[in-house]
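User: tokens in, sequence out, please.
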């Protein structure tokens, strides 16, 4: 005991905090993101899609000191902004594109951003940003934990940077019933309507999870059923625990669900479930099984589209590349890989081995998904631990996902989020790269052993460039603007530090040292403007 006390004292004196018996390293020296200004900075996406007649919920995400007031000029008829919160609500019926100038004002100043509201068939015109429960709590998720995550999203001010969705993964499901004979929540979610209302009142949105199988990966019922009345054999036979999670004699907790239970039921309850989710005001669906198939993907798409509610449709379970045109047509997000974990091997294999193949299908409204973010406190159950990624690996992780135009779903316990993790997620310039309205995924234009250079075109003509070192030692990586077809004098900007660092002729070379498993992310601006695009090199 004495030795343990000495160890704890040494850790605390070293600047390392102890939280619920989990050591949280002090990475404050690695923080690059400047502290936010007290004056307003409007950080929301620059384009937003909604369908005519659907309920709008769009927050003018803005950092800065409160109180703050908001205004919006050019909103389509039927939409309105709350001057105190910046929340835009209502319904509009006329299709079209509406440039809306949003202004935020406080005692320190004002800021404006034009957001294009596109009323039509497409939603999720930028990759969804939010949180998912699986990577921290797995099947132990409950209503209290979800509510705590929503409050932390608000209180830690991630909401000011566009983080929007609070998604409940596998583990919420009970049995069928209610008005539509749809999946009802188990006892861990005693008031899902109240939970939804509370999340929406904060300006956030709520998501749920399901599967096209009769049973999910974690052992709960899915959106198809072997019986016409919506009953499931293992439930009627009593082979389940008190949460209606499947159990057997040799596996009473249902932790090893056999593949024999993963099949499509003869009877579909997709429409039933969707109607229930609409009543609960669900905004996001993670639909998960393997292998994904055309029939069930399209069936859920049609059911979601039949309702007057915009629900982001996220496909999980590894979307096979051969069917990429199907996923890009019928879903808003489609998983391209196995589940990620907080190791360099997992990050490396998922991020750098195959994501470039999806560039032809990644576009506004349809996003290739390399899985959730593995920063902060993760654990996939009751025992959380701080991510095993080094600070440099975490910068690689967030930088690459931003370049890929990937959905950004936080996978950690937000309530325990440290300052370093917050700095990774609350950088407006990094998020703007991910949320760029052009929606073009980066591509590795140069691979030299363990050195990779990824480039992403941005809507304003600039280029975002990621210099990645996948090797075991620090190394020099260089480029010239002309390598990417850029002419004229350019400014190199460091979006992590939010500062211009160098003026560079297009024929000159920029070189930097990149640490092991690290990266350097830069923006070349203004890129090729109309004036210099035809200049000779």
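Assistant: Sequence out:
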């Amino acid at each position: 005991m004495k030795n343990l006390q000495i160890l704890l004292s040494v850790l605390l004196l070293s600047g390392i905090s102890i939280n619920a018996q989990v050591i949280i390293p002090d990475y404050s020296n690695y923080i690059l993101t400047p502290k936010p200004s007290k004056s307003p900075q409007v950080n929301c996406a620059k384009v937003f899609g909604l369908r005519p007649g659907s309920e709008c919920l769009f927050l003018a995400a803005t950092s800065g000191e409160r109180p703050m007031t908001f205004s919006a000029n050019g909103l389509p008829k039927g939409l309105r902004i709350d001057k105190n919160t910046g929340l835009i609500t209502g319904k509009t019926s006329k299709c079209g594109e509406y440039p809306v100038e949003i202004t935020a004002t406080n005692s320190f100043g004002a800021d404006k951003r034009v957001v294009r509201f596109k009323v039509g068939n497409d939603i999720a015109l930028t990759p969804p940003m939010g949180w998912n429960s699986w990577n921290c709590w797995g099947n132990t998720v409950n209503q209290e934990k979800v509510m705590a995550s929503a409050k932390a999203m608000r209180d830690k001010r991630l909401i000011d940077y566009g983080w929007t969705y609070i998604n409940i993964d596998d583990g919420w499901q009970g049995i069928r019933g209610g008005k539509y004979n749809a999946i009802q929540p188990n006892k861990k979610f005693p008031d899902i309507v109240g939970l939804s209302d509370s999340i929406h009142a904060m300006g956030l949105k709520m998501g749920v999870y399901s599967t096209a199988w009769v049973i999910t990966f974690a052992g709960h019922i899915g959106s198809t059923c072997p019986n016409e009345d919506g009953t499931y054999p293992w439930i009627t036979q009593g082979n389940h625990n008190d949460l209606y999670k499947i159990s057997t004699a040799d596996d009473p907790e249902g932790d090893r669900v056999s593949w024999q239970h993963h099949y499509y039921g003869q009877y579909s309850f997709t429409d039933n479930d969707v109607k229930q989710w609409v009543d609960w005001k669900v905004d996001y669906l993670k639909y998960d099984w393997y292998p994904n198939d055309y029939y069930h993907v399209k069936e859920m798409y049609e059911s979601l589209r039949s309702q007057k509610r915009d629900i982001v449709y996220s496909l999980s379970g590894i979307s096979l590349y051969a069917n990429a045109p199907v996923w890009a047509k019928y879903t808003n997000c489609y998983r391209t890989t196995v589940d990620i974990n907080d190791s360099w091997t997992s990050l490396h294999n998922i991020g750098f081995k195959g994501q470039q193949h999806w560039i032809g299908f990644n576009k506004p409204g349809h996003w290739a998904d390399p899985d959730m973010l593995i920063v902060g406190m993760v654990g996939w159950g009751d025992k959380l631990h701080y991510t095993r990624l080094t600070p440099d690996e975490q910068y690689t992780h967030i930088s690459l996902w931003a370049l890929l135009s990937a959905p950004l779903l936080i996978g950690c316990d937000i309530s325990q989020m440290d300052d370093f993790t917050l700095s990774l997620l609350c950088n407006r310039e990094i998020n703007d790269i991910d949320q760029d309205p052009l929606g073009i995924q980066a591509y590795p234009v140069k691979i030299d052993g363990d050195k990779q250079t990824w480039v992403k075109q941005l809507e304003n003509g600039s280029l975002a460039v990621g210099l990645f070192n996948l090797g075991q030692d620090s190394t020099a990586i260089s480029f010239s603007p002309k390598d990417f077809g850029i002419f004229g004098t350019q400014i190199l900007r460091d979006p992590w530090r939010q500062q211009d660092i160098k003026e560079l002729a297009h024929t000159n070379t920029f070189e930097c040292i990149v640490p092991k498993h690290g990266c350097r992310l830069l923006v070349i601006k203004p890129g090729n403007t109309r004036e210099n695009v035809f200049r000779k090199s």
